[in-house]
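DATA CLASS: polypeptide
GOAL: derive structure tokens

***
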Amino acid sequence: YLDKLIRLDGQVGFDEELCPLCENGAAEIRCNECQSGELLCTECIKHRHEYLPLHGLQRWNGRYFERLSLHELSLVVQLGHRPRSSCLASTPRNMTIVHVNGIHRVKARFCECDVSVERWQQCIRMGWWPATVLEPETCFTLALMRLFHTLNLQGNITAYDFYRTLEGLTD
């Protein structure tokens, strides 16, 4: 088993130079959360993660995989609309989202159409609990809050220890 685990840390078994989906871009990025672990190009990984903006990525640099975020790939999460539709009246803004797998920087675009709801409501509809109702910039996912609640009740973990663990997952 150890040999198989070590192989996952390298590029062994993924020797394609071109992305297997589009057969166009360089296959150099993998997702830590998705089960396949296949290497994809930048555009295909962004397309595949439009609905999964909190997945952690890694890019092969020729020697090892280094941490990469969808924020670094300029993925913009559209709030208040379907992901592929856009609200042109809004400018993307940087947000911090705390999730069960770490702390993420996300570029999000709030809907500012005539029929739009408050920004804090758009966050909640996405499953993100805003730290403030006025101009939310930091949110905690509902999955994270459920996990903390369970760990706090069952294991008496403090909010401080829980957050420090998330910081460790992020680094």
Q: What stands out?
A: The beta strands are 29-31, 57-60, 65-68, 76-78, 93-99, 102-109, 128-130, 138-141. DSSP finds five helices and eight strands in the chain. The longest helix spans residues 142-155. The first strand starts at residue 29 and ends at 31.
